[in-house]
Amino acid sequence: MKVKDYIHERAEGGTMHMTLLDPAKQSPERAAEMASVAEGMGTDAIMVGGSTGVTQENLDATIVAIKRKVKVPVIYFPSGAHAISPYADALYFMSMLNSVALENVILQQVAAAPIVKRFGVEPLSMGYIVVEPGMKVGEVGKAKPIPRSEPGTAAAFALAAEYLGMGLVYLEAGSGAPQAVPEEMISLCKRTISIPLIVGGGIRDAETAARVRKAGADIVVTGTVVEDSDLGEDLRRLIQAAKGTS
Ligand code: 1GP
Q1: Three-state DSSP class for 87?
Q2: What is the CATH number of domain 3-243?
Q3: Nearest C-alpha to atom 4 of ligand 1 is from which residue?
């Protein structure tokens, strides 16, 4: 089954949870262990990526190690065309819609497209929208982050992504953000678009994950909390709260 169909099918049945692992932050073996534990707790896919420090070597090694241990899809979440893995089940073919740098809106994608085709990795078209504070990804991506007080601006970006034919929208507060994307912004985007809505950045506990789900996220992404956790009951509670299965 294509990853796109898997996402659509699962998201129809309720909110999904995806676990983000940065290949620069731990060994491939440790990443595979984390992915396997998260899968056992109900995570629906593993995303691999990071804003800085991703190399072809650590990316390939991490994806290969994870794929040996888990059955859920492994999706590459790229920061540019410099590293693309043939081993991922799919990759987000994404544009940072509110970057002021053409590089991040379309030029990296032009560089990546022929490589993705050659590798035969499934592209998942996605509009990426950085919300304040945006953290490292906002800085590196030269984003003009959407102010937290402007849900209407985020919804207009999300609708533009849908009208451009993109299959997914990602509202990103930035990895390690002190606060997640505001609920009002999530719910307005959800009411405005008809494609799946991904929300990530700053979701560190079950309560926040539940609020993000109830606001309307179709996919809740957590990264930092998984890296920092002991892979114990708190993580299980968070994944279940994100999915509404607790
Ligand atoms: C970052 O949205 C993801 O791209 C996850 O953020 O690391 O804060 O969970 P956290």
Answers
A1: coil
A2: 3.20.20.390
A3: 175
pLDDT in the model for residue 246:
72
Dig out the tokens for 85 from the structure: 């893995």
pLDDT at 51: 86
Mean pLDDT over residues 81-101, rounded? 97
Both structure tokens of 144? 């003009």
Question: Across the chain, where does the E strand assignment appear?
Answer: 16-21, 45-48, 74-76, 90-96, 122-130, 168-172, 197-200, 219-222
Q: Which amino acid is present at 234? A: D
Cα–Cα distance measured from residue 208 to residue 66, given in angstroms and rounded to the nearest whole number:
27
Structure token digits, residue 241:
């709260």
Could you tell me the residue ranges of all domains in the chain?
A: 3-243
Q: What is the mean pLDDT of the chain?
A: 97
Counting ligand 1 atoms within 8 A of each CB, the residue from 18, 20, 94 with the most, and so the one to mutate, is 20
